[in-house]
Amino acid sequence: MNASAELLKELRIERGKAPSTPPPSRRGLWIGLAVAAAVLLAAVVAWLVLGGEKAPEVRTAPVVAISGAGGASASVLDASGYIVARRMATVSAKVTGRVKEVLIEEGMRVEEGQVLARLDPIDADAQRALAASQVSAAHSQADSVRAQLVDAEANARRLSSLVGQQLVSRAQYEQAVAQRDALRAQLVTAQRNAQVAGDQLRIAGQGVDNTIVRAPFSGIVTSKAAQPGEIVSPLATGGYTRTGIGTIVDMESLEVEVEVGESYIGRVQPKMPVEIVLNAYPDWRIPGEVIAIIPAADRGKATVKVRVALKEKDARIVPDMGVRVSFLEQAPEPGEQKPQGVRVPAAAIVQRGGSDVAFVLGNEDTVEQRAVKPGIAMGQDRQVLSGLTAGETVVLDVPETLADGDRVRLAGAEGQ
């Protein structure tokens, strides 16, 4: 009985006393913070994705006015080429022989007729000595015949007076006359032989002179090909035989040779002004002019050669240098209408709804769509007759989704 009363007493609830509660847990707080971070991250990702689509990254370029007479001309075509010399010669001896001495070095300036090298003249000297002896022999023979002729003529005159007096027979007189005429013929032959011997002596002397190599024109020695002791020959005989002493270049004859594609050769005209930039000196701009368009095409490369004159001469310009040539617009003739419109890169003009448009960069990096009227192609640029003003900035490589009023992000401006 007492045990049951105690159990009931323990189960009784005391209303005046607040029930005890366990301490709050931190698990819910961490869960809330994680949810908030996930929501914030999703918002940032969505802003980046949607914002990137609304503000694409683009390149820009300025709108440039097309210059008239007296201004800087625009390039209508760019091409690569090389410096070449119109007067360049590998100098060799006219005869085969052993080099005795070489009097040139690379970089040396030589004048026309200056001695460059000498060959061993022993054979040529022997030929000249033999020819001189033959000349002496021919003259001696002619002198001997002349002396005999004098005696024969005197004998014929004497017999001519005696045959009239019938002191000698006519047969003796006729024999004397025949001998005189024969000696006259022999004298003519001897004189001609002496002349031939003299000609042979001059030829032998020329052979000696051929052992001396001289400069054919004034210029700079660019290579030295032979050394003393080597055999040189004007013919390519193979082996260790040289075909030249050295190479001379006339620096005053330097010009530019450019290969222009067949599709663009129509833009090039004789007397057209050009601007030449050497690959070795990219900041040096050399004025030039088109000399001629070679009337022949390269079938393999589909190019046509163009000769360009250098209007400035300088020691830094040497043959075989690589160059970049910009063909410029022709200066307008007096009374001719000046070029109209502006010039922009061709990548700035796109098609929208069947019309040519360009996107002009405005305030706060927003773009404005403009209808434009394109003109002629000017190299990598395009003439625009209306719709744009010099000094404005246009978007290049316009994205297909770009529309009027959209905001863009600048990747960099393209200057002139």
From TrEMBL:
It is found in: Cell envelope. The chain crosses the membrane at residues 29-50. Keywords: Coiled coil, Membrane, Transmembrane, Transmembrane helix, Transport. It comes from the Bacteria. Residues 342-397 form the Multidrug resistance protein MdtA-like C-terminal permuted SH3 domain. Residues 256-329 form the CusB-like beta-barrel domain. The keyword Coiled coil applies. Residues 142-193 form a coiled coil. InterPro entries: Beta-barrel_RND_2, MdtA-like_BSH, MdtA-like_C, RND_pump_MFP. Pfam families: Beta-barrel_RND_2, BSH_RND, RND-MFP_C. The keyword Disulfide bond does not apply. Residues 87-233 form the Multidrug resistance protein MdtA-like barrel-sandwich hybrid domain. Belongs to the membrane fusion protein (MFP) (TC 8.A.1) family. PANTHER family: HLYD FAMILY SECRETION PROTEIN, MULTIDRUG RESISTANCE PROTEIN MDTA. This is Efflux transporter periplasmic adaptor subunit. It comes from Pseudoxanthomonas daejeonensis.
